[in-house]
Design goal:
The chain has 213 residues and is mainly α. The chain has helices at 20-42, 52-58, 61-78, 89-99, 102-115, 163-166, 170-179, 183-196, 199-209; strands spanning 120-127, 132-139, 149-156. Strands 2-1-3 form a 3-stranded antiparallel β-sheet, with helices on both faces.
């Protein structure tokens, strides 16, 4: 059985970006519901004793949707930081190479997240085939992992992620999100992706977040 992970920061640490009330609903209710749903759905099935990574990469339907939403939210929380953080030189160089400049990456990332229709997630992911960083939109619970791409950064653009604090102003939420990116974590993910590929996602999920006792 899976449990809801703790937030990696205090709920009152994000200033005017996200409020404690927003985290109470988003983490304490929405994220918790995905955990509860998955635990109920896998009882008595082939996935009952599987790792979250195995479920994410081998399931479909409701089981996949809830497993993916657990992972997507886990990863989103780790992409957030109460304070400004710095990119590694390696990641900075890769973004400049693949997008022309850090400013262009920000512009493209926010534009992609702003224009994503409906509910979903906006990612920066490492393409193992091209060895380049890509910006990817996914709808609902979808994740780049199923396309064998390694997530580096994600922003949640389901309305419940920002409506409490920013109402329908998704662009305002995205600008504030960008000010609170945990670039140290993103840099680590890039380093892991280059060394371990999808194995880094397996390690993140099963050893760092949902390690079995």
């Amino acid at each position: 059985m899976f449990t809801l992970r703790e937030l990696p920061f205090a709920k009152d640490s994000m200033g005017d970006f996200l409020s404690p009330v927003a985290f109470d609903f988003h983490h304490g209710k929405h994220h918790q519901t995905y955990v509860n749903n998955l635990n109920n759905l896998i009882k008595g099935t082939e996935f009952e004793k599987s790792s979250l990574f195995a479920i994410l990469t081998k399931s479909s339907g409701g089981v996949f949707n809830n497993a993916a939403q657990i992972y997507n939210h886990d990863f989103y929380w780790d992409c957030l930081s109460p304070k400004a953080t710095a990119l590694s030189d390696e990641l900075k160089g890769a973004l400049e190479k693949d997008f022309g400049s850090l400013e262009k990456f920000k512009e493209d990332f926010i534009k992609s997240a702003t224009t994503l229709f409906g509910s979903g997630w906006n990612w920066a992911a490492y393409n193992l085939d091209t060895q380049k960083i890509e910006i990817i939109q996914t709808s609902n619970a979808q994740t780049p992992v199923t396309d064998k791409k390694v997530p580096l950064l994600v922003v949640d653009v389901w309305e419940h992620a920002y409506y409490i604090d920013h109402k329908n102003a998704r662009p305002v939420y995205l600008e504030k999100f960008y000010e609170h990116i945990n670039w140290h974590f993103v840099s680590q993910c890039y380093e892991w992706a280059k060394k371990e590929g999808l194995g880094s996602v397996d390690y993140y999920i099963n050893e760092l977040v949902h390690k079995k006792a």
